[in-house]
Amino acid sequence: MRQIAIALLIAASPVAASAQSVQSDAQFQIERQGDSIVRLDRKTGAISTCTLEGQTLDCRSSTDERAAMQAEIDRLANEVDQLKQQIASADSTPKTGIDKSGKELTIKLPSEEEIKGVMTYLEDMWRKLVDQVRDLTNDKA
Questions:
Q1: What is the rounded distance in angstroms from the CA atom of residue 62 to the CA atom of residue 74?
Q2: Do 37 and 28 contact (CB within 8 A), yes or no?
Q3: Contact 47, 39 (CB under 8 A)
Q4: pLDDT beyond 60 at 48
Q5: pLDDT grade, residue 115 (50/70/90)?
Q6: pTM
Q7: Torsions phi, psi of 103, nearest 5?
Q8: Are 31 and 38 in contact (CB under 8 A)?
Q9: pLDDT at 16 > cutoff 60
Q10: Which residues sit opposite 28 in a β-bridge?
Q11: What is the rounded distance in angstroms from the CA atom of residue 128 to the CA atom of residue 140?
Q12: Where would one find the signal peptide in this protein (predicted)?
């Protein structure tokens, strides 16, 4: 009986030793923290927050998320700066566009003199129309 116990102890010792080496050689250490699961990478020190979805563990690195958020913040800040520059330059330059052939077009607004000239022309035309209507009504009467 004693020989069997010694034989079992000798046979089990390499299995126990290999189990310990697997534990110490594991790259990740997983701990449950309340409702979430935290994964520690023992080699790099990176910490990931994980969620258990069915039978799979979905882990997102905290540093990756922060880097992605910072990259998005930087991109949006650059876009805001560009839009501010466009607004500032739009006030000082004439409005331009591009036609179908690729030629740049500039829209020139009429001056005050041109507007007054058009208004005078329209007023004259209106007076002539009213005079003609009066003449027609006087001829019929």
A1: 18
A2: no
A3: yes
A4: yes
A5: very high
A6: 0.30
A7: -80, 135
A8: yes
A9: no
A10: 41
A11: 19
A12: 1-19
